Amino acid sequence: MARNSKKKSLESQYRVLFYLGEGTFGTVKLALHLKTEALVAVKMVEISKKTLKVILVEREILATLNHPNIIRLFQVIVTPGCVNFILEYASGGNLFDLIQEHGPLQEEEAKHIFGQLVASVKYCHNLNIVHRDIKPQNVLLDEERNVKLTDFGLAIKCSPGRLLSRNCGTKRFWAPEILLGEPYDSRKTDVWSLGVLLFFITTGDYPFAGSTLIEFEQKLTTGSCRIPPYISVKLENLIHQILTVPPEKRPSIEDIEKHPWVMKCDI
Ligand code: ADP
Ligand code: MG
């Protein structure tokens, strides 16, 4: 037993190097795979009542995904009290930190990143998987600034037409129908989050800001966002289309892919 657990333990296979980041559930560290000398990211999630479902969902869904713009899961190692996801390492960090450090992206670069992100979300939706936590912190970049969507802890398998009711994710990225507590089409709420993200990466700001929570909620439910004048006409049109309040009038991920501002990304 001891031999077997040693064989499977984290330290016997990896040298954990340094801290990469932290989210709601996990701490992520860089590690070296001793056998191949490849760098990987280890997402360590403590097992608790609160995290168990997230762990099981992330494990199951990541294992089914295989797309160049989605982070790859190599292995799962369970150590006492902790689950370690061994993931592809994205050396460019996350989009939130990038914008915080360097300011908003030029439209040409945003097009490249957004096009790849749309491709990854379309791939998920076609597999009946919705992410439900699309935000810049969950979009990573590799050394060539290719997108790697990550953090599938709140994802769910959802057939077309099925409505969900549990709100989850981050309020700033919620669609109005989630805020209003209505049953929601999770494909359309993923699309809304993409719109908030697109606004953020091209302006460095959020589309529905307010000095109070009530003001923010009013703006969100009426879809009143002001787009800065330096944004091109095509991009302005795309953002307005995505941030359409009635979900039935909001574009699908396929519609977004066809928009003239979006750089189609063929795999
Ligand atoms: P949580 O589920 O707790 O939100 P995430 O999976 O979103 O955890 O990871 C938290 C942060 O850790 C990310 O925002 C990112 O900065 C960093 N990170 C996560 N995975 C990787 C990875 N594969 N490569 C590089 N950094 C990562
Ligand atoms: Mg996260």
Automatic annotation (TrEMBL):
<dbReference type="InterPro" id="IPR000719">
    <property type="entry name" value="Prot_kinase_dom"/>
</dbReference>
<comment type="similarity">
    <text>Belongs to the protein kinase superfamily. CAMK Ser/Thr protein kinase family. Smok subfamily.</text>
</comment>
<dbReference type="InterPro" id="IPR001245">
    <property type="entry name" value="Ser-Thr/Tyr_kinase_cat_dom"/>
</dbReference>
<feature type="active site" description="Proton acceptor">
    <location>
        <position position="133"/>
    </location>
</feature>
<keyword id="KW-0808">Transferase</keyword>
<dbReference type="Pfam" id="PF00069">
    <property type="entry name" value="Pkinase"/>
</dbReference>
<feature type="binding site">
    <location>
        <position position="43"/>
    </location>
    <ligand>
        <name>ATP</name>
    </ligand>
</feature>
<dbReference type="GO" id="GO:0000226">
    <property type="term" value="P:microtubule cytoskeleton organization"/>
</dbReference>
<feature type="binding site">
    <location>
        <begin position="20"/>
        <end position="28"/>
    </location>
    <ligand>
        <name>ATP</name>
    </ligand>
</feature>
<dbReference type="GO" id="GO:0050321">
    <property type="term" value="F:tau-protein kinase activity"/>
</dbReference>
<keyword id="KW-0723">Serine/threonine-protein kinase</keyword>
<dbReference type="InterPro" id="IPR011009">
    <property type="entry name" value="Kinase-like_dom_sf"/>
</dbReference>
<dbReference type="GO" id="GO:0035556">
    <property type="term" value="P:intracellular signal transduction"/>
</dbReference>
<protein>
    <recommendedName>
        <fullName>non-specific serine/threonine protein kinase</fullName>
        <ecNumber>2.7.11.1</ecNumber>
    </recommendedName>
</protein>
<keyword id="KW-0547">Nucleotide-binding</keyword>
<dbReference type="InterPro" id="IPR017348">
    <property type="entry name" value="PIM1/2/3"/>
</dbReference>
<keyword id="KW-0067">ATP-binding</keyword>
<dbReference type="InterPro" id="IPR008271">
    <property type="entry name" value="Ser/Thr_kinase_AS"/>
</dbReference>
<dbReference type="GO" id="GO:0043066">
    <property type="term" value="P:negative regulation of apoptotic process"/>
</dbReference>
<feature type="domain" description="Protein kinase">
    <location>
        <begin position="14"/>
        <end position="262"/>
    </location>
</feature>
<dbReference type="GO" id="GO:0005524">
    <property type="term" value="F:ATP binding"/>
</dbReference>
<keyword id="KW-0418">Kinase</keyword>
<dbReference type="InterPro" id="IPR017441">
    <property type="entry name" value="Protein_kinase_ATP_BS"/>
</dbReference>
<feature type="binding site">
    <location>
        <position position="88"/>
    </location>
    <ligand>
        <name>ATP</name>
    </ligand>
</feature>
<dbReference type="GO" id="GO:0005737">
    <property type="term" value="C:cytoplasm"/>
</dbReference>
